[in-house]
Design goal:
Structural class: alpha+beta
Helix content: 25-40%
Strand order of the largest sheet: 1-6-7-8-4-3
Largest sheet: 6 strands, antiparallel
Number of strands: 8
Length: 159
């Protein structure tokens, strides 16, 4: 088991070496300390074969672009909750709204169309071309709000 751990470690060293800017090949004996190499128990012939294979693999691999610093990678990562970084969409519904239920499509004056996925509401009186806000929720969910005092409809964009 220990032999496989050391080999896996050497493989990771090799991957790190190929990810860095292409430099001349460095033999495995120079990359790993003598004690760790002795624990693997490779014969001189096996070491020579391993070095040859790693050198050939390195030559076949295309030159990797310089790796971005870890701090830069962390800031470029996806947000923890998809959609929360998106801002609300303010528009007007084209036409009259008297309520909604799953399947109702709202066409907005900005050209977007949103379909109700969940939620049902019947307005006391129809409203013509009402101002609405489509607000983002967690995990890419969106909610359409016709009035602050009314429940929101869960919607998804179809156009």
């Amino acid at each position: 088991m220990r032999r496989w751990q050391v080999l896996a470690g050497m493989g990771m060293v090799w991957l790190a070496a190929t990810a860095a800017a292409q430099a001349p090949y460095v033999a495995i004996e120079q990359r790993v300390d003598a004690q760790a190499l002795a624990e693997v128990g490779l014969t001189p012939a096996q070491l020579q074969t391993l070095n040859r294979l790693l050198r050939e693999a390195e030559q076949r691999a295309p030159a990797a672009p310089a790796a971005a610093p870890v701090a830069a990678q962390a800031t470029a990562a996806a947000p923890m909750f998809a959609g929360l970084d998106d801002g609300p969409i303010e528009a007007h519904v084209t036409g009259t709204v008297d309520g909604w239920q799953p399947g109702t499509v709202f066409s907005l004056d900005n050209g977007q169309q949103w379909q109700v996925l969940k939620g049902e509401m019947k307005l006391k009186k129809p409203v013509s071309n009402p101002a609405i806000v489509v607000v983002p929720g967690i995990a890419g969910r969106w909610f359409l709000q016709v009035d602050e005092d009314l429940p929101k409809a869960r919607v998804y964009r179809i156009r």
